[in-house]
Predict the structure.
Amino acid sequence: MPMKEATKNLKTLHRQHHQLADSSVQVSILGDEHHQYHLIPFQQKLEESGLYPLSPKQLEIFQVNLGKMCNQVCRHCHVDAGPDRKEIMSRQTMQECLNALQKNPSLKTVDLTGGAPEMNPDFRWFVEEIKKLGRHIIVRCNLTIILANKKYHDLPQFYKDNKVEVVSSLPFYTADRTDRQRGDGVFDDSIRALQMLNEVGYGKENSDLLLNLVYNPAGAFMPPPQEALEKEYKKALKEKYNIVFNNLFAITNLPISRYLDYLLQSGNYEKYMIKLVNAFNPAAASNVMCRNTLSVGWNGFLYDCDFNQMLDLKVDIKNNHISHFNTADLNKRSIVVNQHCYGCTAGSGSSCGGTVA
Ligand code: SF4
Ligand code: SF4
C-alpha cells in the first residue's frame, strides 16, 4: 500500500488542534499541577543520589533538529512530526551551527535528526559542510524516506560518500508490530531500505559504514534487555531478509507528545510513570545523555536534549540561541529536569544511543 494512503488516518496533534500540541500543557501534566498523581519529583530523586543540580560534562555531541516535517506519522512520535509540519531549519541557522562547530573542536559528533532530516532542502549541503569540518555525522533516518520519492533513492550512496552513521527505528522485526506503531506498509519499505543500505556496504562486518537500529516498546512498558534483543533482531532479519546491521539500541519511550497522548488516552499514564519511578537507577542518572550532548532546535534555540526541546524547556542560560553560542556559559549551566527525565534513568537507562548503565 502506498505510504500516503497507509498513513492517511494518522494525524499529528498539531493538525488535530489537540491540547497536547501546546508544550506548556504537557509540562503542566508532567508537573502534576492538579495534584492527581503524587509521584516523587525527579529533582528529589536526583538530590537523594547526590546528583542535583545535574551538571554537564565536556560537550561532545551536537544534536541538530532539522525540522518537524516527516513523511510518517508514527503513533508514539515525541516530536509530533508529520507531513503537515512546516517548521524546518533555515540555511542561515545551519550556518550558525557550522560556526559553532568550527570554534568548538570538542564537538566531535554531529547527530542530525527531525522529523525526517532529509526532507530539509539544505540537508545535503549541511552534511557536506559538516564533513569538511572533519566531524563524525549521525543521521537519524526513518528508512521509508529513501523510498518515498525518486529524489531520495540515492541517499544510501550519499550517506556512504560522506561516511555517515545511519541510525534507524525499526520497532520490531515483524510487519504487524512495526506497522501498528509507524503506519501500514512501513515495515516492507523499511526492509527494502535496509537492503539498499546493505547493498552499498552498510552494516557489514569489517565495514566502517555503521548501521544501527532502534527498538522502542509498542505499549506502556519498558524495553527488554538490549543485548538479548539485538541477537533476536540479528537472527530474524538475517534469516528472513538477508539484512545485517551493527547494533540495536533499546530506547525507553518518554512521556512526551504523541506517546503522552497514548498514555493518557489508554489510562496508562500513572501506572507507566510509577514503573519508571520505581526503576530509577542512580548509575543511569549519572550517565544521562544531556551531560555531554547539546540539542539545537529547528529555529536555533538551544536545549539540554531533544526531549526538552519538544517541551520547549530551553537551556537555563541567558544566551540560549545558536547565534550566541558560548561554551563557557553552557558548561556552567544546570540541566533543566522534569518528570519526563524518569524515562532516561529507569533500569539500564535510555539515550539516543540506547542503554547507558
Ligand atoms: S518517529 Fe520519526 S519517523 Fe516517526 S513521525 Fe516521528 S520523526 Fe517521523
Ligand atoms: S529527558 Fe533530557 S534532560 Fe531529562 S534526563 Fe533525559 S536527556 Fe537529560
Notes: Confidence is low (pLDDT under 50) at residues 1-7. The beta strands are 61-65, 109-113, 136-140, 165-169, 211-215, 248-250, 293-296, 302-303.
